[in-house]
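ok so for the tutorial part 2 we go from a plain amino acid sequence to predicted C-alpha cells. step 1 is just haveing the sequence, like this:
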Amino acid sequence: MSNDNIRRLQYQIESEKKKISNCIHDYNEPFFNPDTIREAYGYNMVGHGSDVWYEPQGYRDVKVDRWTRVCKICGNSQHTNKLLVLVVVMTVSLVNF
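step 2 — the prediction. this is what the C-alpha cells look like for a chain of 97 residues:
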C-alpha cells in the first residue's frame, strides 16, 4: 500500500470520526443482535515444580445476548449486553377532600 493510499484512508477515518462526534444522534429502536464469543473450558496444569501454569483444554462458541442501536443520521452503532428493564411507577397522592 502506498503512502498516498495510507494518507487518504487516514483522512477518511478522521472525517468519519468528526462526523460522529459532531452528530446529535437520533437512534433507532434497539434490536436483539446475539453475539458469539469463544469461551475456554477445562484447564490443564502445564510445567513442573514451582514453574506451573494452567492452559485451557479447548474452546467452545457461546451465544451472548446483545442489543444494538444505530444512529439514523451518522450510522454510529452502540452495543450492550445489559438488559435494561424500565419500570414506571406512578404514585398518586390523595388530598383530603
